[in-house]
Amino acid sequence: MSRFELWLIHLSTVLVGGTGLVYAWMLWAMESSDPYAVVNHAWQPAIQHLHVWTAPLLVFAAGMIWRAHVWEHWTRGVRARRRSGVGLVLTLAPMVVSGYLIQTAVGEGWRTAWVSIHIATSVMWLAGYLAHQLSSRPTARDRRVKSKANSVPATPSPLRRAS
Questions:
Q1: 152 phi/psi in degrees, rounded to 5
Q2: 41: which DSSP letter?
Q3: pTM summary value
């Protein structure tokens, strides 16, 4: 995974997770002093919009690292951080799909269901992401597997003359 991909996934997770947490706090922990207010805080709609606008960045970043990081480690048998990585993969799809379905749900029951799924999977994503970043370093076996994959036997160049 390149430095750009690494920072993109970090940045997008912080932006989407941060705006989601702030929006949830404004929605459920704050109370407006105006009894006729539709929102609990003046910034609540802006934070919600930022959350929705930055979410595609997270989807893009996850797609970017799929082949070079996720699939590569899976096929090579890298065991380090596998449990948290699999957890992230399993929570990504329901988190993303429920986030979009919240915006299109018409019935109150469906909307409540999608919100519940979105909150649960988003909390799991953030916890899994933190666990994935803080989990142990690669084991000796993982380092051997990686060194075997990176070692390429030296082959003579066809442009080089034999001496």
A1: -115, 125
A2: S
A3: 0.76
